[in-house]
């Protein structure tokens, strides 16, 4: 009788095994580097944006660990304008400063509870000054400096801001 029960349990386990799946977990450590880009259709400059504005970003290349893609290129995320000073008269240049906020995993892995992956990184740009020209010519009092702008056709470096555990879906 004992042998039949053990054989029955073994058969049950054997037939149920294909339906049981184990989620693989991967740790993305803080400081992991990545490349992100802005939508090339938008203009990111100090004359058009104000502090507090959220801008969409996209992962430029896959994040891989051990040759396995963890987050696919194209994953969407957010950056935020933290400082924007418009160019002004007398040749004073504009300035823009943007910080990377987060990224939604894309592909076969996701964070617990659908959380976003926190990012770190800052980019800023100060436009060109035209103060000398404004002082040389009386009409120069009305010459504005250049706006601080980010080239949306370029890739920018960001990092994972906080260690996160992703699991396969």
Q: How many structural domains does the protein architecture include?
A: 1
CATH class: Mainly Beta
Q: Oligomeric form of this entry?
A: single chain
| CATH fold type | Lipocalin
CATH architectural category: Beta Barrel
Sequence of secondary-structure elements? HEEEEEEEEEEEHEEE
Helix fraction by DSSP (H/I, runs of at least 4): 10-25%
Biggest sheet: strand arrangement: 2-4-7-8-10-13
Mean pLDDT reading: 82
Range of strand content: 35-45%
Work out the number of β strands.
14
Poorly predicted tracts of residues: 15-21, 130-136
Distance linking N and C termini: 41 Å
Tally of individual helices? 2
| Rg on CA atoms, Å | 26 Å
Based on secondary structure, the structural category is: mainly beta
Described by the principal axes of the CA atoms, the overall outline is elongated
Which sheet architecture does the biggest sheet show?
6 strands, antiparallel, barrel
Q: Layout of helices and strands, plus pairs?
A:
Elements: H1 2-16, E1 25-28, E2 33-38, E3 44-45, E4 54-59, E5 63-65, E6 68-71, E7 76-85, E8 95-103, E9 109-111, E10 117-120, E11 122-126, H2 131-136, E12 149-150, E13 155-160, E14 164-168
Antiparallel strand pairs: 1-14, 2-4, 2-13, 3-12, 4-7, 5-6, 7-8, 8-10, 8-11, 9-14, 10-13
